[in-house]
Amino acid sequence: MDKENIYQEYGDFIFRYLLTLTNDSQSAEELTQETFYQAIKSIDNFHHNGKAKFSTWLCSIAKNVWLQEMNREKNKHQLVNSLSDETPNFYNLEDEYFKNEDKISFYKKAQQLSEINREILYLRLLGDLSFKEIGSILGGTENWARVTFYRAKQQIRKGGENYES
């Protein structure tokens, strides 16, 4: 892959993908820049082995950049709120524990899914993308993305038991 031309070739696609995640063109532009910076730094790690398309690899970098930004914003928000609170910040430790256990359980089950099922699950739930958009990103149809997402959800509910889609 030619490092010089990847932004020209994929920049608009990644920007539109991030715009669907952020709903903010300024944020999408900043995250697009960061995505390509990260991609150029790790382009030697991309091996076209017939499984992953370059655009899919870029989307996964973009999604990770976006999630990192979301975590930064959430942490910044929590800090500002805790500093501006006059009252001490009390919370129910037991409730927090169960919320975290639910998250941990979900991600453990998601890790048992095939890579494509996990990617569709994340794009739908975390990226809030339509099935049409997911199909477009991953090179499938809208119906394929919908069915695969449904099957991935079923696997998660059944505890991650693996069956092929």
TrEMBL record:
UniProt cross-references to InterPro entries, sorted A to Z: RNA_pol_sigma-70-like, RNA_pol_sigma-70_dom, RNA_pol_sigma70_r2, RNA_pol_sigma70_r4_t2, RNA_pol_sigma_r2, RNA_pol_sigma_r3/r4-like, WH-like_DNA-bd_sf
Taxonomic superkingdom: Bacteria
Alphabetic keyword roster: DNA-binding, Sigma factor, Transcription, Transcription regulation
Domain spans labelled RNA polymerase sigma factor 70 region 4 type: 111-155
Coiled coil regions in record: none
Domain RNA polymerase sigma-70 region as annotated: residue spans: 6-74
Pfam families noted in UniProt: Sigma70_r2, Sigma70_r4_2
NCBIfam families linked: sigma70-ECF
Family, as annotated: Belongs to the sigma-70 factor family. ECF subfamily.
UniProt name for this protein: ECF subfamily RNA polymerase sigma-24 factor
Biological source species: Lysinibacillus contaminans
